[in-house]
Structure formats: structure tokens, C-alpha cells
Design goal:
The protein is an alpha+beta fold and 72 residues long. The chain has a domain of 29 residues. It has a two-stranded antiparallel sheet with strand order 1-2. The longest helix has 12 residues. It is elongated. The model has no long low-confidence stretch (mean pLDDT 86).
Amino acid sequence: MTTLTGTYYKGRLKLDKPVKFAKPVKVTVTFEKEKQSGLSLSDFSFAETQDLLKECKTSFADEVIEERRKAI
């Protein structure tokens, strides 16, 4: 078995390296999940958030409720 990598774009598959076989071979193409841009759960730290909010005298929920009331 030979493993190849490449890129699929607009209906075409482009292999990273050329390959030659003497006769036709059966292939299986697996599409990898796209990497998410933006934030993931691992980007957040509960301890860091606690430290940032240690001087806060109100609850986060109360602040969100107040902000939403002002937006109405």
C-alpha cells in the first residue's frame, strides 16, 4: 500500500508528489476535516479567567442582564 497526500480543489485532486504505476490501481480518497479558524475550548483557561475577574464586585450574569436591558 502506498500513502499519498494532496489537495482537492474545485473538482480536481493534485498530488503533492508524482507517482507512477505500471497498471491501473484502486484508490481510496479520504477528506480530512478543515481546521477551524477562531477559538476552541482549549484556548480558554478557567484559572486565568478567575484571576482576571478577582476584582469584579458583581456577577457576570448580572452584568449581561443589565447590558441587554440597556440595548432594548
